[in-house]
Amino acid sequence: MTNYVLMNDTYDTWHHGCRAVSRVIRREMAKRGFNLVATSRVGNRWWEDFSFVEQIQKADLILINGEGSFHSGGEDAQRCIRVFHDFAHIKRIAIINSIWQDNPSEWTQSLKDASYVSLRDTISQSNLSSQGIDAQFCPDLSLVSSRPTTSIAKRSGVAWGDALRRQTTRALYDGFKSANGENYFASVRPRFRSPITPHPIKDFRYQMICSIKRYTCFNDEIELSAFLGSRELYITGRFHGACLSLCAGTPFISVASNTQKITYLLQDLGLNTERVFPDATQLIAASAENWRWSKQEQQNLEENLEKISRQSQKMFDEVCTC
Fold first, then answer.
1. What SS3 state is found at 93?
2. What is the pLDDT of residues 50-96, one digit of tens each?
3. Is 321 strand, coil or helix?
4. CATH pick for 2-137 out of 3.40.462.20, 3.30.450.40, 3.40.50.2000, 3.30.70.1350
5. Helix, strand or coil, per DSSP, at residue 300
6. Apex CA 15: angle with CA 30 and CA 43, to 5°?
7. 3-class SS at 209?
């Protein structure tokens, strides 16, 4: 069996979408005979983890889960880039599922030593391709993490979600509280803080908050996506919230996140980019009736979800043979 290490791992994060991506990576690599021998959590100073460095030296492949880290020269991405300087001359390095936006030019030089590069939007792909990087395209892996097994005959109600910025989350929650009719606040945060380390006090406190604030909570992304599949509209401020809504076939509108990633996602899938707003003000009075999929959007979504399944399989095949 071939061994690999996973960098920028998001499995042990308090976020359904990030955990979903990490689960897909583990599943697909295992299907292809690759054994995960060590991981480095997103944000970690991996070079100070001597056990992880030791496993890198033994591994056949270093796999980097880019996620939303690679923009604006961010510190998490900088820590990933360091691995090229230390190991690209002796190890295969692949980066997948990544955005690439407004990064230092020297990072691009580092990527030229990568064995494989795949970006999750075509704008990022174009950014690197124009600089001589042979970058592939495969949309975010959360889009293949969860699909309702049966179609929903009748949808009802509006689900609200949170956002990266606390101020935006407060605005969305206030909108949920003041909305008329059937409304839910569907938290993107799992019921339990970590799938690895028990946090009984923090978990209990969060579940109390959910009860008091009327959050609807879920154990994993499959439960969340199934719940969204019964709703008429999802109002969110999270990229992965948008992705899981698309998995469920549910129309969504969103506050822009910290990059253009939600807009890029809509463009790549042939969906209306006017679903993304600069702030929460215009979302508060939104109605499900006004934001149903158009016939063209519905067709594009169905076709692209099937296409993404094929693209992801091809990407993992290429990663494992790079």
1. strand
2. 999 999 999 999 999 999 899 988 999 999 999 999 999 999 999 99
3. coil
4. 3.40.50.2000
5. helix
6. 75
7. helix
